[in-house]
Design goal:
By secondary structure, this protein is of the alpha/beta class. The protein contains 11 helices and 11 strands.
Length: 333
């Protein structure tokens, strides 16, 4: 609530001399009776009328305060925003080949990628985002949607077990993964269409080469950001189940950085290298800054006079004060 004429609140200062005058005048005007000793009345019970003797004065002060509030013109307002959102259509293409279990990123490559992607999705509530997964072939885990809760639930259940169990073929088909993501974006009406391609290997299977898929993406105006994950050393620790336990072996790091750079360059995107989880998080933050959702906001506000409740309350309190003064608190000279 706001007040159009706040200066009227200065009138409340008049209550101070009125209260002082009331106390002094009442003290002088009270009838007295001379008695030799008043100890006999020390514990005499006070009537309700005596206990509430100051009630009329309090009611007058409250009524005066309410009248001042009415004069200050209290107002309420309705605010609303008219938003025009121009979202971005984004497909996440994530490698789920078994090599993503390597633990050079913590806790491992696949879990680090999922955690950072979840943070990225949470920060873009207005965008259509989907998920493509690929190993030896590709599969749309989630079509583009603004229902990010469902998307993140499907992302949570994404794992390398899909490749290990034969649901997806073995190997790394970067071209197939990119082509699948492009197929989801090609008919999009959004002005900005983006693919974030994350892999830890080199293209070694699939019917479509990565550069051919990149040319297709370019023809549809799709920008591709490529992320190569994995240590910059020659080998990475890879867990192998042995006799009910886990034994680690050194897995060769096979990254085709040249191809990933060409994909990004041909589609006017960027290439990134993530050797640890911190770098991967910073990469997604950088992409988040580059691909900002456009939003035009118009603010509207309408004010309404809200003095009526205060005016009604002031009239009722004044009526009550007058009624009490001429009845229950009436004085006979």
């Amino acid at each position: 609530m706001e007040f159009a004429d706040k200066g009227y609140f200065l009138l409340l200062l008049l209550l101070i001399p009125y209260i002082v005058w009331y106390l002094l005048y009442r003290k002088k005007s009270e009838p007295t009776l001379r008695m030799s000793d008043t100890r006999a009345y020390q514990y005499a019970p006070k009537s309700m009328r005596v206990r509430l003797i100051h009630l009329p004065m309090i009611l007058r002060c409250i009524a005066f305060t309410l009248i001042v509030i009415v004069m200050a013109r209290p107002q309420t307002k309705n605010d609303y925003d008219n938003k025009t959102v121009e979202g971005i259509d984004i497909m996440l293409a994530m490698d789920v080949s078994t090599s993503m279990l390597a633990e050079d990123l913590k806790p491992n490559r696949i879990e680090a990628a999922k955690d950072v992607a979840t943070e990225f999705i949470s920060g873009r509530p207005n965008d259509n985002i989907g998920l493509t997964i690929f190993a030896g072939d590709a599969f749309t885990q989630c079509p583009m949607t603004t229902d990010h809760s469902s998307l993140m639930n499907l992302l949570e259940h994404t794992s390398t077990a899909m490749a290990a169990s034969g649901y997806l073929e073995g190997g790394t088909a970067i071209g197939m993964g990119l082509a699948n993501a492009v197929s989801r974006l090609k008919d999009s009406k959004a002005k900005s269409k983006v693919i974030i391609l994350l892999t830890d290997g080199a293209n070694n299977v699939g019917d479509i080469s990565p550069l051919t898929a990149a040319e297709i993406a370019k023809s549809f105006g799709i920008r591709v950001y490529t992320i190569a994950v994995g240590t910059d050393k020659k080998f990475a620790p890879y867990p192998v189940p042995v006799g009910g336990g886990i034994q680690y072996m050194n897995q060769p790091v096979e990254l085709d950085t040249r191809t990933l750079q060409d994909i990004a360059s041909n589609t006017e995107g960027n290439y990134y290298r993530a050797t640890n989880t911190k770098q991967l998080r910073m990469i997604y933050q950088d992409i988040d800054k580059l691909e900002k959702t456009k939003m035009n906001v118009q603010h509207f506000s309408k004010r309404y006079e809200a003095y009526q409740p205060f005016a009604i309350a002031a009239v009722l309190i004044l009526f009550l004060e007058i009624l009490l003064r001429i009845t229950w608190f009436r004085r006979i000279p």
